[in-house]
Fold:
Amino acid sequence: MHLKRLTALALATFCIAAVTPVIADTVTVPQGLDQSAALLLTDLPVFAPATALAQSAVPDASSLIAPAAPAASQVATNDDASADDDDDSLVAAATAKLAGHVDGHAREALLAFAMKLRDIRYHRGGRAPSTGFDCSGFVRYVFMHSIGLDLPTNSASQFLAGLKVKRSEMKTGDLVFFRTRGKAVSHVGIYIDNGQFIHSPSAGKTVRVDSLNEAYWAKHFVGAKRPEGIAKI
Structure:
């Protein structure tokens, strides 16, 4: 009978250990048990499932998180290094437009840009608003900065580079030429419409709009030329 009680007590202790979340590494022997019972209890294995689970390998939380996408600065190309290429691309696109590859309003854009430069003073050899313009400098600046077309540097060479246009067929953006000194072409302007043109006239004056019908300009008018870049639009 005494042995059966000891066995039952041992089994109860084992069950308690199996369901206890956290259990000590050793079992304290209840007081009042004889030496044989104590030996029986202390020899029983301790089963601690909570401890075993705690000691098992658990994946680190950071390993379960998807890697972050690389920062834009890491995948972007070096914009500073390609700035010149971007400028070249813009000029190429404008030139393609002028060659008739795409429909658009290049002539209107050219005229709108030219009109913004009114009242800038004349300066012989001038090529920029900050210094002033002479006639060919004004024309070249407008074409380059409005539609990306590079024209020759003086009125005589601009005249030779263009395609001849009848006066009755002139369009906005065509170039009008004059002989103001001798027989050589010496002055140029940009045709607007209805006989008007915009130009940088002469020393002491500023960029302005004049009419081909005015006596002076009618007398010195040579003809109109169309830059090849806008010949198809």
In short: The chain is about 40% helix and 15% strand. Strands lie at 127-128, 132-133, 163-165, 175-178, 187-193, 196-199, 208-211, 221-226.
